[in-house]
Model the fold of this input.
Amino acid sequence: MKGWIVIVGALALAVGTAQAQPLGSPAPTSGKASSSAGVSASVTLTRVGSPLRDEQKVGTYWWGTVCIQPTPLLWKDLAEMMTGLDAVFAEEFAAAGLKAGSDPSNLFAEAAPTSGDLQVGALVKSADASYCENVIKTSGKVTLGVEWQIYSGLRREVVARIETTGTYEAKKLDDRSKRSLAQEAFAANVRSLLADERFRQVMADDPTQAIGSPATRFEAIQIVGPKAASVPLSAAVQSVAAVFAGGGHGSGFVVSSDGYLLTNQHVVGDAKYVKVRWADGFEALGEVVRSDRRRDVALIKTSAKATPLALRSSPAALGETVFAIGTPLDAKFQNTVTKGVVSASRTYDGLAFLQSDVGINPGNSGGPLLDEKGSVLGISVSTYQVNDAPTGLNLFIPIAEALDTLALRPAN
Done:
């Protein structure tokens, strides 16, 4: 058996069987620490895993009164000794004058990170162990080779991969605990990670500055569209397009009479150009002119074929009726309209979302959430699923935040 062996910290509760799914089809694969080095990012150990097989030999276990009886030590046996690693991780950070994102001694702290800063995964790629355990003492030596994967919740990508090797050897453990051999070897790897210049640099970088703010990244674009007015859904559908990029598809909608479309960043990915297909089947080339990975929004410029949708400035009301338009699951389902209500307003990782039970699926990404008059309230972005089944827990980016992130200024 291969794969992740230990789930610790926030991710154990954040994942479970219910997962937030980006709606693109497919989507490209989200406490302050401080020190004299200027470290500013929050760091949480979220999982520990290994590609080693359960039955793979990684050392020798000696037993008997004088430890002369050898037995092969298998990876599954060593893995069972690797518990409490989140506490080890936090202790080493504390010893370095830093604070890890999770405090295992605080039983009432938030279970999940409250800001999507840095999450750390440890992949144990190699192990070599030898230990003796009898009624007198426990002694031994454990060496672990670890690949650390540093994931930025702001960038939504792995920003560094760092390999370390750590060894711990003890002639006699007073508590005769073989478990501490593995823990201390892991601790040695944590110390090597903390000493690595690349990791220090990742921590020292201000994630918000790395991504940039709309005020410094984009010049304002004035978009011209209709004032809020009652528009039938049959007309609104004509302003929503399917967007094809990177072998998958999502949705987008017109926000300006000169051909600007809004969609999700995870729909366009890194593509410079995308294919846009309108409700009547007409296809055109679109250019991705700006995007923001953290807020997950992108702006496409294409031919001005459809009428822009009105953009609502007033906030959504709890319980009001809403409609979603998009291309769920398959391109043949373009122009699908679903109905629901506004369920709640949420904030995750410092970002605002609207929650609704209106039906959406992968492929709806980037499509509009409309009120009863046909004005845009938000942009479809993600859905929660349990065992790949819909739950009615769907999230949308408020239209005002999308416009602000991309520096779009409505003329009306």
The longest strand covers residues 157-173. Confidence is low (pLDDT under 50) at residues 1-21, 24-40, 102-116, 206-216.
